[in-house]
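Quick start: what a row looks like.
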Amino acid sequence: MPQILVIEDEPLAAEKLKGFIQRYQKDAEVVAVLTSVAEVLAFFEQDELPSLQLIFADIELRDGAVFKALAQLDLPCPVIFTTSYDSYGVQAFSHQAVGYLLKPFTYKVFSDTMEKLTQLKNKLLAQADIAPASAATTLAAAQSVPTTPQPGYRQRFLLKQGQGLQLLEAANISCIRAVKGILLAQDEKGQSLMLSENNVQQLAESLDPSRFFQLNRSDIIQINFIERLEPYGKENLAVYLRGLPEPLLSSKTRTALLRKWLNS
């Protein structure tokens, strides 16, 4: 069941949007309707967040622009902005925007935007190097990562690849990333494999904490693949992993925990 968050301070606009969502996908669940920047921040401070697939966000809220909240968050999914103003495009697309709906919009415009989101996800998967690794490659990778799995934690993933299935060992995963609402596991060569799971926090809790760490709301890293770390601003660390060209950044709320994890 897709879980969707609505950020909208106009009751009529919120009801109209919820109606469009249900009309487009009957099993979709609107988990909350938030009306202010303060409510958005409070929602994402929950210990257990819903497994969000999409956020619809008005821009001008009762206590300021929604960007004030989004700039402080590691969003777990893409955002479609809904607004009466056409001057926020640049800001919107710097906050994981995959759509920009100008009010008042029709159901046709709404459904076209949702179709484009589906096409974007499919394109992302097609562009990712999603291909089954050979048994020899998998064995070599496993042998190159010395690790003693702890009982009770996730050790492997069974993935569908084309017409067949592939077994992915957790030991061979350098990181897991949420990209436009899809979870991709990456190995040391940067090869990407789509996981059936869609909640970063729940997946992180199922993995061995001596090896895996949730770096922010979107990324999980494995300690055996860390090449180096560098300070990034005052409250963040840049983590460089084998096989990944760009570093991943710790969120400011996770940096202290990351240092403790690395020293344990």
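That is the whole record. The CA atoms of residues 111 and 200 lie 27 Å apart. The domain at 3-127 is CATH 3.40.50.2300 (Rossmann fold).
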